Amino acid sequence: MEKKSVKLTRRQFLKVSAAAGVLVGTAGTASFIHKAEAAPKEVGPNISSVRTTCSPNCTGACGMKALVEDGQIKSIIQAADYPEPEYNPRGCLKGLSMTNLIYGPDRLKTPLILKGKPGSGDFKEASWNESLDFTAGRLKEIADKYGPESIGVLFQVGGTGYVQKGAVSRLATLAGWTMHHAYDQNGDLPMFWPMTFGVQSEELEPREWLNTRYVMVFGSNILATRIPDAHFLLEARNNGAKIMVFDPNFSPTAAKADEWVPIKASSDAAVGLGMARVLIEEKLYDSEFIKTFTDLPLLVRVDNGKRLKADEVKSLVKPADIPAYREAYVAYNGQFIAVHPEKLDLPSDVMIEGDVEVSLKTGEIVNAKPAFQLLKESLADYTPEEVEKLAGIPADDLVRIAREMAGSKPLHIIYGAGNYQWYHGDLKGRALALLPVLTGNIGKPGAGISTYAGQYRIRFKVAEWWVPEGKKQNWLPFLYVLHGPTKTMKAKWPTHGIKALVIGWGNPFDQHNMANKLREMVEQEDLEFVVTTDFQMTTTCQYSHAVLPAVSWYEKTDLVATPVHPYLQLQQPAVKPIYEGQPEFWIIRELAKRLNPEFEKYFYPGLEPDQAAQKVIELLLKTGGPEVEGITLEQLQKGPVRLKSDVPGGRQIPFYDQVQHKKPFPPVSLPAKLEQTAQFVKSGRIEFYKDEDIMLQMGEALPVHKPPFEESEFALNPMAREKYQFSYVTRNAIYRVHSTHSNNVWMNELQEGKPRVWLSPKDGQEKGIKEGDAVEIFNDRGKVTAYAIIDPGVGVKQAVFEQGWWSRYTNGESYNTLTYPFIKPTHEIYFVPGMWAPNTAWNECLCDVRKVGDAL
Amino acid sequence: MKKSNALLGLAGAIILISLIAWGYQVNNGLIVTNMRNPFSWGLYIATFAFFVGVAAGGLIVSSSVYLFNIEVLKPFTRIASLSAFASILGAGAMILPDMGRVERVWKVFLHPNFQSPLVWDVVVITAYLIITFLSVYVQLLPDWKKEGHGFLNGWTRKRSQEDINSFSKKWSKRVALVGLPVAILIHTVTALIFATQASRGWWNTAALPPDFVSVAVASGTALVLVISLLAVGKEQFEEYRGAFRTMALIVAGSLVIHFFFLSVDLIVHGWWGNSEAEEIHALIFGRYGFLYGLEILLPAFTMIFFFTEKGRSSFKALMIGSVLLFIGVFAHRMMLMFPAFNVIPLSLSLSGAGIESWAYPVALGQLREGLPVFVSSWDYSPTLVEYAVALLPFGQVLFVVTGAMKMYNFLPQKRIESPPTNEK
Amino acid sequence: MRLGMVIDLDRCIGCRSCAVACKSHNAQPPGTWWNRVFTPGSSFHQAAVGKDGGLQMEALPVSCQMCDNAPCQKVCPTGATYTDERGVVLIDYERCIGCRYCMAACPYGVRQFNWEDAKEVKARVGYEAGYEYGYPVDFRDKDGRLVFTPNRPAGVVEKCTFCAQYLAEGELPACIRGCPGKVRTFGDLDDPNSEVSKLIRKRQTVRLKEELGTSPKVYYIAPAKPIRLEVD
Ligand SMILES: Nc1nc2c(c(=O)[nH]1)N[C@H]1C(S)=C(S)[C@@H](COP(=O)(O)OP(=O)(O)OC[C@H]3O[C@@H](n4cnc5c(=O)[nH]c(N)nc54)[C@H](O)[C@@H]3O)O[C@H]1N2
Ligand SMILES: Nc1nc2c(c(=O)[nH]1)N[C@H]1C(S)=C(S)[C@@H](COP(=O)(O)OP(=O)(O)OC[C@H]3O[C@@H](n4cnc5c(=O)[nH]c(N)nc54)[C@H](O)[C@@H]3O)O[C@H]1N2
Ligand code: SF4
Ligand code: SF4
Ligand code: SF4
Ligand code: SF4
Ligand code: SF4
Ligand SMILES: [Mo]
After folding, report:
1. C3-221 — its CATH code?
2. Average confidence (pLDDT) over A104-117
3. Is pLDDT at C227 greater than 70 in this prediction?
4. Is the Cβ atom of C105 under 6 angstroms away from ligand 6?
5. Of A295, A357, A555, B366, which has the most beta carbons under 10 Å away?
């Protein structure tokens, strides 16, 4: 079992919970352990084990134990110390091989200052003093010249480390820099959430999957992208839940499902709407539920498509106690009812079908229909036969599945990020949300719709640390940096645009280098200065003017929480920083005092970074609100602690409160304030009818199916229709967390260290491409070379590329040179950072493929 | 003799080269060979098996003189014994560079696992080494006595020449009697190393040991034939014509038996038509078709050739036939490896997907840029170092045979009844 | 006591975490893998097998099968390969002469040879100077045989040991602890109450290449769609 290091006693928190061993692994354990002979043998006294949290940008947040000898991590294994054995052991092959990155050849050793051209790799090693002075100096110059808001800050999603990332936010706020929220930058923001439910996003905790009877997975490759949680899906299946996977490709997840339903790329909305039509036609919906919790009974004016407001109607008065961000709409049950947006209690005879004449205060008489009626009319187009044409799902199957789904409760829909990272991802989500809502599968155990994207979610209040003294922060969606400003944007475009980037925890020069824009900006000196903190020499570091070596999560203290499981956990240093690496907190503090001596006091001057981090954690726990109430640092040092929730048993079930206690939508979506998010669903209900002008103009008041590329690629270049007929689908691989682990030697042993493109046998044949051939995937914007895998499970006219390769593995070019920063106007109606903002659509990209010679 | 000095020099050079190569290998590990995890035996083991084969043949020739009274061969018993001794020494040496840890070889004697055919092989090869040595020794004793020199023969000083003559005669016969079964055994056991392994379909057949024996008789006799031919030279060919014809017939005859086993084995492998057998057939007739062709055609040629009058009645013909046979037999030894290792034992059939035999990839044991780590077949071809190391037994045989012949009289013993010819 | 393992292929997600856990904890040099996971029938892991309408994709982890009738042990001339009192087939790194006969004999392709010095191979990857991964201490069995050492000598054969170094500490093998799918169960096959015995009794299991008579102690539960209860 655990041995405490004599050498490490200084850090008392390294004590490891004795419980860990008992809860280890599978059920076979106990009986074995008792029989295992003998006490520990031959184990040196200088071996210890330290519990920390693996926390790259994958949402896993898996508790890991590092075996440490002589100040070096020798191996890593799952801590398996979650109090609920169901969650043990969390982890995956990447987490287990972090040693390859920590001690690997790409580890940054010292600060670097660019000597040659960006990307040339021509750096000079510098001391911390020199590099920090240089960085602070350049940032001051740029701030003086263009204003501090011309400095953009990228620090990826918050949950992977509240303390160290908080330091970045703290400094950016103090300095008046512009922050880019990673959630929409990553394309991970499922815009249907704020549109429909008024929240950033929500999900069942994976343990809840066990309570589900019917699971519909729309393009989420859980077996590859939720490795630590995939077992819940199989357990649910083996408990009798039916697993249906809708995906153009036969993914590992599809292989384990009861049924794989191959559908055309980005046709999910058609499928959802076709099924919704069956539910409505066959009256398989839960009318009680939709009357109580949705906007479907609310009346919509036929003349202008706007929802009828209570204060428009002659006989009604708008209730007085309504907050400014809400609106009182109207329903009808023989009488007009002013619907209070914070009270979910409509009479059960409220009209949802038909129409009614309304006299307005203006004297006009207009025709109005409940949203449900309009929905029904609009769904009339989605007959099974029509959906078969649009999506390729056989008409019979569509009807059968819709009936099966309606008959099995709880129903859970998993809407994958790869699936919503399309131009019309929001429409797809709104259409799919109809299924659980119409059947009353919201706010109940094992029921609902979930998205499991990046580690976006802030799970408790962080303002006390992240936003010093309630200062105002500047936010700008990242897509504008790539695309340039639009006329319709709500966010504020800095007068001179973004002239410098401060980057951490991300590798945007591969991951967000759409149409090669980012590199061009640096090369053309639009971006005058880029500084990156990372612990590895990434492509982004290669394009930076200054590189500041940070440390991995085995070398520092932090606090982590993820949406995927409801535990708060610590990162604790297993070893001292390697080479000259420093925790970001320290780097930020050093930068801060160089930028402005006044700033230093905000960063616990005089404390060691780890001590300071502990202070910050204590602060966060004290001020974090109900979710962390009562949780102490000491508890966390013993092991993971479950976050508090209002749901009995502390379970993570979205909208439980709304549905069980008829509370208005939305619940609070941290870190935003309610008044920011409640404006998304002014009715206080689940909204399917959106009457904002742009929604009406674009014909998206109700969820509809729109084919891909029409408003994006073809609008940009009509020639693309002929020229580029392959979809460039960039999905995640088990071997990487995005670009992290691109260079991990074991991961590359497992896949020959080669990027792959997966093609259908039919396309392979037409293009003369055989298994193993080098293939160029290209469009007008760029190209990437990969080796072909001919897979009978891949849909036709798709070039499926496993994303995340460093450019060094793709001929120096970023695989994201092909993609384009399309901005969908409906994403600009409001602006709340990372909640309602233009979302990146990676898969909305056309290309062609051709065989190249073996030379690469 | 100038010629023999040159030959000794050549042998020395060959041995030196191979020892240097071996030294290099010891320093860098077996990574300098082209063997890898999926293909873990190669040229060394093939060469070993080749030399075991030719070694066995030697004693079979000399034994048959005593056992079957094939008088014509009698003049060549010394050469036969010497050839056997030299070859088995070469075989024994060849196995050493194949060990990853040659300095630990003594562990085989300290902790022998008697279940292992390799241990049986060590036992019989050691026995054979002793026997062939004794065989040479007792046959040389009379000469040594006569000439007053020799090796380990102090004890003969007190005895009379007649005594020693009859001692030699008696013991030559006795050694031959023991030697014959051991000769057959070394080959049987060497074959058993392979044939016992159910993991390798190509080897796992009861026909392998008898087939090995037949090939051994053919190639071993051919080696005796070649050494004898070289020893007597073209000039005296006619004199021993009868002996050479007999040896050629032994070669041809044992090849008949070899081809009998080979075809029976192919039929048994092929008839059932399971996927593994089909894979093996695909390999031997496809990817390794050339080598397999050599393995079949060259000995087949020799067999037919030696059955013809022309084939066995001239110096040149016999040399050509024998050399072609050696190449064929060497190809046969190499072909022990290819189909065995490139049919991955853990192969699965997926009836649902119409896949008959899918090889579960094996890790190479090496990481190199541009090379996959997991493979389901390995294109083995020996490296230069391997070739150099594998020269060792060739050098040894050359060295021992030439050296011994230079030092002692291995030339044909004059038959009493034959008329005295031009004495030197 | 006969230690064995049951691998539930129905649950295996093919994530290869077990292979990596094994590699890391047992300090396997680059190019060496004691534990592999592949998609049978496929040229690339996790590519589909079959034709339209009949696609499949299963994962099959394979490490040493711990044969009761182990050909590798039988052929080993020096007894370097032996079976301990718990049925674990082990290799004494100090006795192995590197003849590789066991590699020819093993039907499962799990034995791995050290073609060169492990330390050098690892160094070539470019880790921080002096860095070594894997369980850092030698482990000897009760008779003093060296069955685990972080840097394998060149010229010897190695393979899965059921994590002998951890078993001795009462810990489960790394692949068991490292499997996020909870696919692997480990225990005493002789004990009818052990979880492994129960699984073998309750579920349909197969062993690889059983027809060869190797009697492996690694059992696989075949992948199969579960029998469904009526959905209510
Ligand atoms: N191993 C690993 N796990 C990860 C990550 C990682 O990098 N590596 N990243 C994490 C992060 S940040 C994210 S955002 C998530 C993303 O995880 P996922 O949501 O699973 O995303 P992808 O892997 O991009 O794609 C999943 C599937 O979507 C399918 N798909 C693509 N387009 C469509 C479509 O139009 N309709 C349908 N129905 N299916 C479609 C693809 O065929 C693919 O099978 O993974 C997280 N987990
Ligand atoms: N075409 C296409 N592009 C995509 C996607 C796609 O599917 N297709 N996926 C998108 C998605 S969903 C996402 S979430 C993004 C992810 O994009 P990124 O988050 O930029 O990608 P990562 O590779 O995870 O980059 C993380 C970097 O942070 C470093 N790092 C890790 N830990 C620390 C730390 O503690 N401190 C510091 N300073 N650095 C650290 C790592 O070394 C690594 O270089 O990519 C997006 N890009
Ligand atoms: S990489 Fe992600 S899933 Fe894997 S161990 Fe780390 S946190 Fe868990
Ligand atoms: S770790 Fe578990 S789930 Fe993953 S491949 Fe191995 S056995 Fe299968
Ligand atoms: S699987 Fe191979 S190495 Fe393991 S016991 Fe069986 S024969 Fe020996
Ligand atoms: S290589 Fe080692 S373990 Fe294998 S048979 Fe030879 S001596 Fe035994
Ligand atoms: S038991 Fe240990 S050595 Fe064997 S496969 Fe599992 S991790 Fe590897
Ligand atoms: Mo993401």
Report:
1. 3.30.70.20
2. 97
3. no
4. no
5. A295
Q: Are B122 and B105 a contacting pair, CB within 8 Å?
A: no
Domain boundaries in chain C?
3-221
Residues of C with Cβ-Cβ distance to B208 under 8 angstroms: none
How confident is the model over A286-304, as a mean pLDDT?
97
- What's the whole-number average pLDDT of chain C? 94
Residue C15 CA to residue C59 CA, distance in Å, equals 9
Q: Per-residue pLDDT averaged across B301-307, rounded?
A: 95
B127-143 mean pLDDT: 92
Preferred mutation among B355, B364, B373, B375 to probe A, highest tally of A CBs within 10 A: B373
CA-nearest of A641, A626, A650 to A569 is A641
Q: What is the average pLDDT across B261-283?
A: 84
Q: Which amino acid is at A139?
A: L
CA atoms within 13 A on the CB side of B61: 41
Rounded CA-CA distance A771/A752 in Å is 14
Q: Which class is A713-853 in CATH?
A: mainly beta
- Find out if CATH 3.40.50.740 is the number for domain A112-188+460-638: yes
Contacts of B367 in chain A (CB under 8 A): 745, 749
Establish how many alpha carbons lie within 13 A of residue A671's alpha carbon, considering only the half-sphere containing its beta carbon. 22
Measured in angstroms, how far is the CA atom of residue A708 from the centroid of ligand 8? 21
Chain B residue with CA closest to A772: the answer is: B372
Q: Which two tokens stand for residue A373?
A: 């009626």
CATH superfamily label, A202-453+671-687: Dimethylsulfoxide Reductase, domain 2 (3.40.228.10)
Average pLDDT of chain A is 93
pLDDT of A654 over the 70 cut: yes
**What is the pLDDT averaged over residues A136-153?**
98
Indicate the CATH number for domain B1-199+384-408. 1.20.1630
Alpha-helical runs (H) found in A103-161: 128-146
- Kindly list the residues from chain A whose CB atom is less than 8 angstroms away from the CB atom of residue C50: 792
Instruction: Dump pLDDT digits (tens) for A170-189.
Output: 999 999 999 999 999 999 99
Residue A697's CB is within 10 A of a number of other CB atoms, namely: 12
- Partner C contacted by B348 (CB < 8 A): yes
φ, ψ dihedrals at B413, nearest 5°: -75, 130
Flag whether residue C227 sits within 8 Å of chain A, measured between CB atoms.
no
**Across A18-32, B9-23, B392-406, least confident range:** A18-32
Helix H or strand E segment including B357: strand B355-359
Per the confidence metrics, is the pTM higher than 0.80? Answer: yes
Residue B193 to residue C101, Cβ atoms within 8 A: yes
- The answer to whether B346 faces chain C, any CB pair under 8 Å, is yes
What is the arithmetic mean of pLDDT over A685-697? Answer: 98
Distance from CA of C83 to the nearest CA of B (A): 13
State the nearest Cα–Cα gap between C152 and chain B, in angstroms.
12
Q: Is the CB of A344 under 6 A from ligand 1?
A: no
ipTM of the prediction: 0.95
Model confidence pLDDT, tens digit, residues A590-628: 999 999 999 999 999 999 999 999 999 999 999 999 999
Q: How confident is the model at residue A50 (pLDDT cuts 50, 70, 90)?
A: very high
Residue of C nearest to B115 (CA): C74
Distance (Å, rounded) from C-alpha A754 to C-alpha A752? 5
Residue A219: the pLDDT is 96
Q: What distance in Å separates the CA atoms of residue C14 and residue B98, rounded to the nearest whole number?
A: 37
Nearest CA in chain A to C230: A240
Task: Tell me how far the alpha carbon of residue C160 lies from the centroid of ligand 5, in angstroms.
Answer: 9
Check residue A84 and report its DSSP letter: S
The pLDDT of residue B291 is above 50: yes
- Which ligand lies nearest the alpha carbon of A414? 1
Mutation for testing the B interface, residue in A752, A754, A791, A808 having most B CBs under 10 Å: A752
C1 contact B CB<8A: no
DSSP B287: I
Q: In chain A, which segments carry CATH 3.40.228.10? A: 202-453+671-687
